[in-house]
Amino acid sequence: MLSVEEAFRTIVGQFRPLETERVPLREACDRVLAEDVRSPEPVPPFDNSAMDGYAVRFEDTLGASAGAPVALFVVGEVPAGRAPEARVEPGTAVRVMTGAPMPEGADAVVMREDTREHPDRVEVLLPAEHGEHVRRVGDDIPADSRVLEAGTVLNPSALGVLASIGVGRIAVVRRPRVALLATGDELVELGQPLGPGQIRNSSAHALEAAIAAMGAVPVPLGIARDDRAELTAKLHEGARADLLVTTGGVSVGDYDLVREVLTSLGQLDLWRVNMQPGKPLAFGHIDGCPVLGLPGNPVSSMVAFELFVRPAIRRLQGHTALAHARVPVVLDAPMTKKNARRQYLRAVVRLVDGAFHADLTGPQGSHMLTSMARANALVILPEGTRSYAAGDRVEGHLLGEGALFENRDSDAV
Amino acid sequence: MLSVEEAFRTIVGQFRPLETERVPLREACDRVLAEDVRSPEPVPPFDNSAMDGYAVRFEDTLGASAGAPVALFVVGEVPAGRAPEARVEPGTAVRVMTGAPMPEGADAVVMREDTREHPDRVEVLLPAEHGEHVRRVGDDIPADSRVLEAGTVLNPSALGVLASIGVGRIAVVRRPRVALLATGDELVELGQPLGPGQIRNSSAHALEAAIAAMGAVPVPLGIARDDRAELTAKLHEGARADLLVTTGGVSVGDYDLVREVLTSLGQLDLWRVNMQPGKPLAFGHIDGCPVLGLPGNPVSSMVAFELFVRPAIRRLQGHTALAHARVPVVLDAPMTKKNARRQYLRAVVRLVDGAFHADLTGPQGSHMLTSMARANALVILPEGTRSYAAGDRVEGHLLGEGALFENRDSDAV
C-alpha cells in the first residue's frame, strides 16, 4: 500500500500551473499573479502632508515652545486634490490638509494641534524636524519599481495596490475547469424518486461546492450508469476539462467498471492508499486529461478531495502553498484505532488559550457525511494500532477558515 | 477615546441577520441556514452491505475457520442499485456488492476476503457476528430527524448531506448588499489621468474585493467630490443598500464634508478609537440604513474593515462567529511603539512547530498599502508605550486562510 505522502507526490507532482489570462481587478481576487508588475507611477505621486496643519520651513520653528511660540504669516491654503499656489518663504506658512501637496519652499508640517490659529498668522508651539509629517513621493512605491512579483496571491489589498498605480487589468493564471462524474447504478439525482436499492447522489453536490469555493469552475456531468458505452462517452466528455474527478467504481467489485473502462481508454493506476477513509484511489489520464478516481462513499471522497484533489487544483491555479495546514491538536476525548492504516477522523477544533483542541463529530462511518458536515478539521491518527487518551497531542488537518472565526457574541456584542 | 472593544460592541450590536430566501444547493455554500431541516427519508434508505461479500445468517457461520470452513449454497446475487430477488434460508448465502440492499433472511455479511468462492457455493472461513458489515437503515440520518439546525454554516459536506435526503432548495439568510462610496476631491478613478495634487482611488477596489470574497454583494458607487449636493445624492443612493461604507472625509479637516452631511441627513456618531491605524471612525444611519465611515488612508480603511465592517457584515449574513481569530504569536524581530494607542501592525505569520511566528511586512505608514498586501495577519501591540524584543509573545489577528496553507513543494512534490 502507498503512503499518503507517496500518493501526494505522485499525483500532485504531475500538475503544472495553467496558462494565463488578462482580467480586470474585479475578477482577480485570490488568484495568482502571472507576471511581475512594475509601477508606471510613484505612490504617493508627490510630496504631501500626512496631517492637517501648516507647511513650514523647519528652520523657522527652531526654538518654538508653548511659552515662546514662533509666529508665521499664513500666505495660502492647499486642500487635498489641488495644486499649491503659494510658496513658503522664510517667516511664512501655508495651511495644508491631509494629503495636500507640499508647497514649494516648505520642508516640514506642523500639526494643527501644535499651533494656535489666527486669521492671517499661526503660532507654532513646538519646533518641527526636517521632513516631519511629510510623505515623500514614491515613499510606498517608487516609480518603475517592482510592486508585485509573479506568483503573488492577489488579496484585496494587493488589488488596492494595483489600483493605486493605475493598473486596471492584470495577467493571472486562469481558473481550472474541473469535470465531476458520479458513477453507479445505485445513484439517483435530486428530484427523482428513490427506487428499490437506490440512494441519492450526494458526493457530487459536496464536491461541486468545494471546487467552486476554491475558485475553480466545476463542470458537473451527472451520473454515469454501470454501462460500458455510457461510461466511455461521459469520460471522454469529462476529459475536455483541465481535470476529471470521478466518484465510485474504483474498488475491486464485479461492477466497478470505472477502473476497467479507464484502463482501456487511457492510462490508469489504481492504488490502495494507507489511510482510512479513502483507501482505494485511481489516478491516470484520458485524452491527455488527468483523472482522479475517488471512492464512492461520500466521506471517503471528501477526505480524498482534501488530501489530493485540492492540492492538485491549487497547483493548476498557480499556487505554491498547496495544502491546508496541519497543526498540533490536543484530544479532548480518548480515541481507539481499529486498524493499522492512518486514520482521518472528523473533528471540531477550537482555539483555547492559543492551543487547538479537538473533539470528534460523532460516529465515523465512511457513509456518514453528517460527521463531515460538522467538522472543521481532520484529526490524524498515525499508522499503527494504539489507543489515545484525552489530553494526548496529535496532528490536525484544518479544513478551512472555520476554525479561525471566533464567536465574540457573548463577550463583545 | 473609545476602546476597540467599545466601538465593536456599539457598532456590531446594532446589526441583525437579514431576512431569508430559498435557493438551490449550488447557491448556498458558506451561507447560514435559516431553518431547521428534518429528513424526509432515512440515510441510508435501507439495510445494505458495507462490503463486497456474502449475505448470510450469522448462526450458520458459527464455528467456521480456515481449517473447517462452513459451506453455503449461493442462491443469488445483488449488485448495488438492484432489489434482492433471493431470500437467505438456513444453509444459503447471497452474493452482495458494497451498498447492495440486504436480502431478506440475512443478518450479517462475510467479506469476500474471508471466503473461498466456487461456482454455486461459498466456503466461509471465519464466523460472522450478528449485524457485521451491515449498515442499518437510518444509521447516518434516521427518518424525520433533525439533520441540520438553523444557524449552521453550510459547508460543502452539509450540502452533500442535504442532497442525500433529497432536499434541493433551502432557506438561507440572503446576501447583504454593501454600498461603497469613496469621497474626496483628490481621488481619481482607474483609467483617468492624474491631475496635480491627485491620487488614485485604491481603497474602493480593495474593499470591493474584500466584500465580494466574504460572500456579500458590493455595490460600488464611485467617488463623491467634496461637494454638498453630490455627496448628499450619493449617500441617499447608498442608503438603499443593507449597509453603506464610505472612505475619507471623517477626520476633522475643513474639507471633511462626509461627517457634516451625514449629520445633517441622519444620525451620526464620530469617534476616535484608541487604535493605530484607523483612529477616526464614523457610525450612524441614513434613511434607516447603517453607515460606517472609514478613514481615507488605504491601510486605515482596510484595518477598520477587518475590525468593524467584517463582523457587521457577518452578523447581517447570520453568522454568530463574527471575527477572525486572535492567536498568540511570537515576534521574530523587536518592535517599538511610538504612541500609547493600540497598534495593528501588518505581518506575515508562519506556523513553526505549532506556534505562530510573526514578522512585519516592512514600513508601516498608513498610506502604505503594500505592507497590507503582503500581510496575512495583524500583530496587536496593546495600549501603552513600550518596546518588544524578539521572542516576546503578543496577540495576532489572522486575516484569513493565508496563514493556513502550507508550502509542501519542497518536501512532498
Molecular shape of chain A: elongated
Identify low-pLDDT runs of chain A: 409-413
Largest interface by Cβ-Cβ < 8 Å = A-B, 123 and 122 residues
Helix count from the secondary structure assignment of chain A? 9
**Roughly how much helix do the residues of chain A carry, as a percent range?**
10-25%
Counting DSSP E segments of at least 2 residues, the number of strands of chain A comes to 30
Q: What is the arithmetic mean of pLDDT of chain A?
A: 91
Structure classification of chain A: alpha/beta
As laid out across the biggest beta sheet of chain A, the strand order is: 7-4-6-5-9-8
In whole angstroms, the N-to-C terminal distance of chain A is 52 Å
Subunit arrangement of the protein: homodimer
Strand percentage of chain A: 25-35%
Instruction: Tell me about the largest β-sheet of chain A.
Output: 6 strands, mixed
Radius of gyration of chain A: 31 Å
Explained architecture:
The structure is a homodimer of 413-residue chains. Chain A is an alpha/beta fold and 413 residues long. The first copy, chain A, is 20% helix and 33% strand. The first copy, chain A, has helices at residues 4-12, 58-61, 156-164, 203-213, 228-238, 257-265, 298-316, 369-373, 409-412, and strands at residues 20-24, 37-38, 48-49, 53-56, 70-78, 92-96, 108-111, 115-117, 121-124, 134-135, 146-148, 169-173, 177-183, 187-188, 199-200, 217-224, 243-247, 267-272, 275-276, 280-286, 289-294, 323-324, 326-331, 335-336, 342-352, 355-360, 377-381, 387-388, 393-398, 405-406. In chain A, a hairpin with a 3-residue loop joins strand 8 and strand 9 (121-124). Chain A is elongated and about 95 Å long. The two termini of chain A are 52 Å apart. The model of chain A is unreliable at 409-413 (pLDDT under 50).
